[in-house]
Design a protein that fits this description.
Layout lengths: L11 E5 L5 H6 L3 H4 L8 H16 L5 E8 L5 E12 L2 E10 L8 H16 L4 E4 L6 H9 L3 E9 L5 E10 L5
Parallel strand pairs: 4-5
Antiparallel strand pairs: 1-2, 2-3, 3-4, 5-7, 6-7
């Protein structure tokens, strides 16, 4: 078994999502990556999501941002991450979500990118909390939340994709606390 180099936050870059990132979104639409999110999307759904990501990244009102994740030493995208507004339990918060391509998993990339996206959300100075809602069955994503400093508030049910209930953990990061 080869040594897997662990990644630190400084060795990951998050770059604003652009028109050029549709192929990355297609790669992230793999069955194994979408297993906890209702399965792969159709090409039409991907194109719609891509358009929303491009629009969100161009927005400067603090609604959120989407990013491609790259290793500091290279140009190749290794995943996706972002944050966006949502109303949660009568409070305006940010939500985050991520995907790391299979060949790059297990290196700490998702945790490093999540810490970086938390800093981007904190810089907006708009909402106090950043939430993540990984499926209770998604051990790796729950581990990312723990490693990135989120607090587990408990289980909850969300609808994702729309019309499909999903049992998730509600993880919260206080953006006003020292990062």
């Amino acid at each position: 078994m080869a040594d897997v180099k662990r990644t630190t936050a400084s060795s990951v870059r998050i770059e604003p999502w652009s028109q050029d990132d549709l192929d990355l979104l297609r790669r992230a639409n793999a069955p194994e990556l979408m297993a906890h999110l209702g399965g792969p999307e159709t090409e039409e759904q991907l194109r719609g999501r891509h358009a929303r990501y491009v629009a969100l990244s161009a927005d400067r009102t603090g609604r959120g941002r989407m990013f491609r994740v790259a290793l500091a030493g290279g140009a190749e995208a290794v995943g996706t991450i972002g944050f966006w507004e949502r109303t949660w339990r009568d409070q305006e918060v940010y939500e985050t979500g991520w995907t790391v391509l299979p060949e790059f998993q297990g290196r700490g990339i998702a945790s490093a990118a999540t810490r970086a996206v938390a800093e981007a959300a904190r810089a907006e100075r708009k909402h106090r909390y950043l939430h993540a809602y990984p499926s209770v069955e998604n051990g790796p994503s729950n581990g990312v939340c723990r490693k990135a400093g989120f607090t587990l508030l408990g289980e909850c049910e969300i609808e994702y994709p729309p019309g499909h209930p999903l049992l998730t953990n509600d993880w919260r990061l206080d953006l006003r606390a020292d990062g």
